[in-house]
Design brief:
The chain is mainly α. The chain has one domain. The chain has three helices and no strands. Helix 1 packs across helix 2 and helix 2 runs antiparallel to helix 3. The longest helix is centred in the middle third of the chain and has 30 residues.
Length: 83
Amino acid sequence: MLTSSWFNLLLVCVPLGWAADLFNWGSVPVFAFNFTSLIPLALVLGQLTEDLALRYGEGDRERVGSWFLSFYSMREREREERK
């Protein structure tokens, strides 16, 4: 799955985005790394939901997609509350 696309090389940007935020490299590098990491993460999420749809049926694909979206929004709310 990770070797299926050249875009997955951009997954290196995920830990770099965390490091940029952790070590206060500034808002531009944090944004650039995190924005760039969205491309392969979206592809991996799409492949995951397609594989689940093939295995369990179409309804489960929609449930998994909405679960990931709600998990992400919950994490963002927690992060904003900590500030």
